[in-house]
Structure formats: structure tokens, C-alpha cells
Amino acid sequence: MKKTVNLSHVRTINQRAILDAIFQKGDTSKAQLARMLNMSKPSMADNVAALLQIGIINEIGEGACSSGGGRKPTLLRFCDNFKYIIVMDFQYQHSYFCLSDLRGSIINQFTIQQTPTADLNSWITMCINAVSMLLASQCITHQDLAAIAVSAPGILNDNDKNYIVSSKYGDLNVGLIEERLTEAFPVPVLIKNSANASVLGEWCCGGGQGCSHLAFISCGQGVGAGILLNGRLHEGNHLAAGEIGFCVTPESLTTKNASLENRICIDSILRQLNCDCQGEPVTFPDIIKRYQLQDPQVTALVDLISTELGCAVCNLLSVIDCELVIIGGDYLAFEEQLIPRIQSIVDNHAAIPVPVIPSRLGEKVSVLGLIATSREFYFKQICTRTAGEEQ
């Protein structure tokens, strides 16, 4: 029995290495793969045959002969549209939906000006309808999906279904969202913390490419960090790593709701500005317009936010010692003031200063991370199942 388990494990590793190589390298042959992965030709042939059988790779014809002549090799190609991924990501004022192939190419996408903070049940119904629309747009069914991936704020421990979400998000019930989606579409539903999805997005497609140790700071309605250490997402024992919004000061010990997030989130600055407002309530788009006009009240608030974030980044660096910090979220609207202030604090107060840069992926940053997460999940599922079936 022990030998069987070990052989299955080896096949899983080999098939995953082959699948990753074909996905990353592009069109290639078994001989090239065997040399690249230092794998025997019989083992390569067996594992490639298993992947061909399920259809996730295809034979696309003959390649060129080697310099020494001989038979032309048969080329292998990853099948991008073997399965699809649906991503659901909700922002401060809207929800975003997209359908992508396994490569990560977005096939269809749309935004709806509705969030779960207003009416959770209506929002879930809207999400189910949105998934149905995306499937219908390509004439596919849920059986063609590798996964549905959802980003959400808070501490999301999927292992024991323990989801802790701030009250500022209304009656957001992540467990109910997962349950209703699974009932409507019997496919894996992956729930990922928004900041964790974002750091993966930056690592795969953005400014964090090539980094082994990376932090992504999301700031706006929520404040949190996604952390990558040694090229792997660091989520912690309770999947609560990076929850810097809970950072406290001595004042927090005696003042209710004085955590970092509650001090500088969008709701907080709106409350401060609306206290002095005599007319219509100030909205976040109003704040952005006033910032662009260099309203002194708004720029003072942005300086306060930047200082708080700069201190939080310094404290985080003292623990994780990463090589780069990327800032994203709603507050990038204040980038010209925000980034230099955070960088100045890091340069002057961090033990080992590192670059602080803005995200250039915009709202797609967490979406790209969710696609990468779903692909990783599906590749692992495919290779584990295929290797097990060969026993």
C-alpha cells in the first residue's frame, strides 16, 4: 500500500511539472520536455498520454527536425479553453464579473452598480443571474467551469467555514454566498480574501513579477495586506495574516473602534467631512474631485491617511522583511500625495527601506489573482485525480 501511494505521488508531481511546462513554454515536444524536466522518455510518454486523454493538452502536428535529422517531433499545446473560470469581485460601489479561459484571457466582463451591503439576498440572486449570463454568452454550461472564484474582505477561513467580516459591509455573509452559488452551479466555489488575491495578481501579472517576498497593501473602505513569502502566499494559521486594519495604538485600548481601518477607511473620512457639511452629504467621488482641486481640507485628510499607512508599512516590514511594497485600492486616487509620503516614512524609519510603488493593474488586480488561484486549484485537481486513476 505504501508503495502505491508513493508511486501515485510521483505521478502527480511529474504530471504537474509537465502541465506547468507546456502552459508556460508554449508549443513543445515530449523530447524537449524530457530534457528540460530531466525525466525518462517512458515516464514522459505515460504522463503525457494521461494529459492528452483528458484533453487539457493537444497534439498540434509536427515540429522541425533537430540538427542531427531524424523523425519530426509531435508538438504539444496547452488547451486554453479546455475549461473556464468565472470571477466575482466587489468593489466599494459596484460588483465586477468576468469569464476567462484557463490562460487568463478575459472573454466577457461587465460591472453592476450593486454591492452586498445594500441587500444581501438581492445581491446573491443578481450574482447567480450574472453567472448564468456569462455562461450563456459563450453557449457553455457549469460543467465547462474549472471554478467560480469570489473575492471578499475579512478573515476567510474556508477550512472550517469561519468567515469574519467587518460590520461596515452590512449583512455580508460569505458562507451564504458560497452555499447559494454551489447550489445553483455544482462546481468548486473558491472564496479568497481581496488583499491575498491582489498580491497574487501583482506577482503573476504586475509590478511584483520576479519577487520572492512581496506585500500588497489595499486601502480604501477596508485596509489589509496580502503577503507573499518565498514565492508562496502567506495566510497564517487562521488565514488572518495581513489584517493590518486591526493595528492598534495605545489610544485604541481605551477608545472604541479606534483601529487603523476604522480611523482611515472611506466611511471614516466621509463622517469627518460630513460633520462640517451644510448641504448635500459628501460622497467619495466628491472627495476625489475636491482632491484634484487641491482642497486644503481634503489634502490634510490625505496626509493623515498617508502617515498612518506609512507607519503601518514600516511595522509590517519589520516583521516580514519583503523586497517590495505595492499600494492599491480606492486611495490610489490620491497617488501623487500618498505614495511619496509613505515612501518617505519607510526611507526614514524602516530598518531596511524598500521601494513602495502604486499598483498599475487597477481594479483587475484581485481578478487576476483569483484567476491564478483557480488555475492552480484546477491543475492540482487534474493531476491528482489522473495519477490516482492510473493505480
Report a brief summary of the structure.
The protein is of the alpha/beta class and 391 residues long. Helices cover 45% and strands 19% of the residues.
Highlighted features:
single chain, five-stranded mixed beta sheet, 12 helices
Describe the protein's topology.
Elements: H1 2-25, E1 28-29, H2 30-37, H3 41-54, E2 57-62, E3 74-78, E4 84-90, E5 95-101, E6 106-112, H4 120-137, E7 145-152, E8 155-157, E9 162-164, H5 174-184, E10 189-193, H6 194-205, E11 214-219, E12 223-229, E13 232-233, H7 260-264, H8 266-275, H9 284-292, H10 296-320, E14 324-328, H11 335-349, E15 356-358, H12 364-389
Parallel strand pairs: 4-7, 7-10, 11-14, 14-15
Antiparallel strand pairs: 1-3, 2-3, 4-5, 5-6, 8-9, 11-12, 12-13
Helix pairs in contact: 1-3, 1-12, 2-3, 6-12, 10-11
Overall description:
The structure is a single chain. The chain is of the alpha/beta class and 391 residues long. 45% of the residues lie in helices and 19% in strands. It is built from twelve helices and 15 strands. The chain has helices at 2-25, 30-37, 41-54, 120-137, 174-184, 194-205, 260-264, 266-275, 284-292, 296-320, 335-349, 364-389; strands spanning 28-29, 57-62, 74-78, 84-90, 95-101, 106-112, 145-152, 155-157, 162-164, 189-193, 214-219, 223-229, 232-233, 324-328, 356-358. It has a five-stranded mixed β-sheet with strand order 6-5-4-7-10, with helices on both faces. The protein has a five-stranded mixed β-sheet with strand order 13-12-11-14-15, with helices on both faces. β8 (155-157) and β9 form a beta hairpin. The longest helix is centred in the C-terminal third of the chain and has 26 residues, at 364-389. The chain starts with a helix and ends with a helix. The model has no long low-confidence stretch (mean pLDDT 88). Pfam families: HTH_24, ROK. InterPro entries: ATPase_NBD, ROK, WH-like_DNA-bd_sf, WH_DNA-bd_sf. This is ROK family transcriptional regulator. Transcriptional repressor of xylose-utilizing enzymes. Belongs to the ROK (NagC/XylR) family.
